[in-house]
Design goal:
The chain is of the alpha/beta class. The protein has two domains: 181 residues, D-Maltodextrin-Binding Protein, domain 2; 220 residues, 3-Layer(aba) Sandwich (D-Maltodextrin-Binding Protein, domain 2). Strand 4 and strand 5 form a beta hairpin. Helix 2 packs antiparallel against helix 15, helix 9 packs across helix 11 and helix 18 packs antiparallel against helix 19. The two termini are 18 Å apart.
Length: 433
């Protein structure tokens, strides 16, 4: 870990200006661990060391409290916060729509941030081509497998749907469950819908579906579930795992009783060292080769509130958060990938592979429950579990999803810009943040 330089901050001595002469800004964060709490304070200290006339107050709240803080802010409560951490997807777009955060076009242009961040990551933090956030850190979703198992059985990583189905068949014939299914963590099934939709429909139609703007009853959407049904018919999942959580399923993967896992990279932090070195990664296979390659990459972002917009110190802190120095510090501490193009990923947790994978994508989305409302994502997850358990046919699943979409989204728009249930989810799908 590149931490030696960080701890020098704790012994850094300089002639600081008096508190009365310091500009003070507030940085609102939501650490989910002691390590995250530590790194946010270290970021503030590093910035203060470079800018002695500025004091950064770190306002830390739990994930749940921070969620409520943002929701209250969207509803009109005044907050003495200048820079705010948020999630990409619905949360960011609700902040944009509420006009509670400041566009960053001038800052982005002045500091040539196009040279620091890829076009897909800029698109993720923008609306109508206007950037509103500094992307901080993200991680990949895809398939994880045991390299020794594949080598022993002479298996190769699939690149397209036919070879993926053939691999599923081979594993089933060898009495190895091909894919993970943890119905006890129903959110984990949302990844299947995400990737099948991205590979068959593309990014814009996927986003329209999860946001309730597109009907589930069209033939092309039905094809998403037909492909998913193929996996079920080819015995890719074991219904005996239907009540297990995502972490309870891991020992089956360790013992090679499950061959592949569609998962977020966060799970590797829970894998024993002796097994982690044997874990490989491959992207979700191509289905329609005419479509660009889109990927799911849950992303943390920093936004400048309307309160901070009038403070030059807050603008300067936002620029600092876009530096390679700050992004590397954060990513190395929390085991994610810095969004900065020049980030040199550490050789652990497949971060280097993940960096290349995401930077080479044609576009990014957040996970289903970051793109959709809580009511819709929770309802869809429960239906997807029932579908994998073969309790619902393709047509019945579609009918239920469409009815839920109609009930959740097709109704008189509320006066508030805050989507119903948009922040009730605790980022439960994405592991440690």
């Amino acid at each position: 870990m590149r931490k030696a330089g960080l701890f020098l901050l704790l012994t850094f001595v300089y002639c600081a200006p008096s508190i009365a002469n310091q500009e003070v800004i507030t940085f609102a964060v939501n650490p989910s661990s002691a390590k995250q709490q530590e790194v946010y304070h270290l970021l503030a200290q590093r910035f203060e060391a470079q800018n002695p006339h500025i004091k950064v107050r770190v306002s830390s709240q739990s994930l749940e409290s921070h969620k409520v803080r943002i929701l209250n802010y969207l509803k009109g409560k005044e907050l003495e916060i200048d820079v705010l951490l948020a999630y990409g997807g619905t949360q960011l777009h609700s902040l944009i729509d509420s006009k509670k955060i400041t566009p960053l076009a001038s800052l982005w242009l002045e500091h040539n941030l196009d040279a620091r961040f890829s076009a897909p990551i800029k698109e993720l933090v923008s609306k109508e081509s206007m950037p509103y956030a500094i992307p901080m850190a993200y991680y990949q979703w895809g398939f994880y497998y045991r390299k020794s198992l594949f080598n022993r059985l002479g298996l190769t990583v699939p690149n397209d749907w036919p070879t993926f189905i053939a691999l599923v068949n081979t594993l089933d014939e060898k009495h190895i469950t091909p894919l993970n299914f943890s119905g006890g963590s129903s959110w984990s099934t949302l990844g299947w819908f995400d990737y099948l939709s991205l590979r068959l429909l593309g990014r814009e139609k996927y986003l329209a579906l999860v946001r309730g703007e597109l009907s589930f009853t069209t033939p092309e959407v039905r094809d998403v579930f037909v492909h998913w049904q193929q996996l079920i018919e080819h015995k890719a999942f074991d219904s005996a795992h239907a009540e297990m959580t995502w972490s309870e399923i891991l020992p089956f993967f360790y013992r090679e009783r499950i061959a592949m896992m569609l998962n977020g990279n966060f799970f590797l932090a829970h894998v024993p060292d002796t097994i982690r070195s044997d874990v490989g990664f491959f992207p979700f296979p191509t289905i329609n080769p005419e479509l660009p390659r889109y990927e799911s990459a849950p992303t943390d972002v920093a936004v400048l509130t309307t309160t901070g917009a009038s403070k030059p110190a807050a603008h300067k802190f936002m620029v600092f958060l876009a530096t390679l120095e700050a992004q590397t510090m954060l990513a190395d501490y929390v085991g994610k990938i810095a969004t900065h193009l020049d980030y040199d990923a550490e050789p652990r947790f497949l971060l280097g592979i993940g960096k290349t994978h995401l930077q080479n994508s044609d576009g990014l989305v957040q996970y289903f429950d970051r793109e959709a409302s809580d009511a819709f994502s929770n309802g869809a997850a429960a239906l997807f579990v029932a579908f994998i358990k073969e309790e619902l046919s393709v047509d019945l699943l579609i009918a239920k999803l469409e009815a839920m979409r109609t009930q959740t989204h097709i109704k008189k728009a509320p006066d508030s810009v805050v989507p119903s249930g948009a922040f009730d989810s605790m980022n439960k799908a994405k592991g440690p943040d």
